[in-house]
């Protein structure tokens, strides 16, 4: 439900910009995937949108600078799942996912029936129903990752920032998660920015890719235009061949030399 615009955004830490001059316009309900090799600056760009990393240039949400929003406004508008989340180990899956509802509660208010219903639905869709009462510390890596995403999706923010959301998930759970996010953007107009190392999944789900290398944007466009074997060789030092899936999307396959 949000339109995001980045105007010449550079972002980094302690005065050192590690990603530079990113310009993009994401209409409501669109999905942008940021791709690029390790250390390219992908997570830093997401962190700049959340306000965790410093930035120059303009980041506009529905036309208003995101930096002018209060913490509460931002928590309602932007859902963020970090690449390596720190979770309160003792909380149960349900209590943790309910934290996603906090921005919607009044001061001192407790979660109501509708909050529990939202959380229940998200947990079911992420195949966590059987784990609702389990403390987070007892979960497997993939289960914990799904719990983190459940909290973010329960937030029902208009803009979702997902840093490597499929890390640690098997192919079936990765697919269900991305399908769920896809459904949200199509049904509710949720706008999505994600980093994804799996280029085939990025091509299947995102409308647009931004390829970043050493902090510079080196390609922007629809997946079929950005994902060429030459480009992947140049920027990832990888040998790949690009196949075409039955639906026409590119499939990036590593090839041994
Ligand atoms: N908190 C920080 N302080 C200083 N430098 C940082 C910090 N976090 C990341 N960096 C540096 O910024 C650069 C970009 O890091 P970033 O995490 O954005 O890369 P990435 O593209 O997400 O990488 P990966 O694919 O490995 O997750 C790297 O050189 C990294 O070492």
Detailed description of the structure:
This protein is of the alpha/beta class. It has one domain: 3-Layer(aba) Sandwich (Rossmann fold). The protein has 9 helices and 12 strands. The strands form 3 sheets. The chain has a 6-stranded mixed sheet with strand order 6-7-8-3-9-10, with helices on both faces. Strands 2-1-4-5 form a 4-stranded antiparallel sheet, covered by helices on one side. Helix 4 crosses helix 5. The termini are far apart. The model has no long low-confidence stretch (mean pLDDT 93). The structure holds adenosine-5'-triphosphate. Adenosine-5'-triphosphate binds next to helix 1. It comes from Allokutzneria oryzae. This is ABC transporter ATP-binding protein. One of its GO terms (molecular function) is ATP binding. Pfam families: ABC_tran (PF00005). Keywords: ATP-binding, Nucleotide-binding, Translocase, Transport.
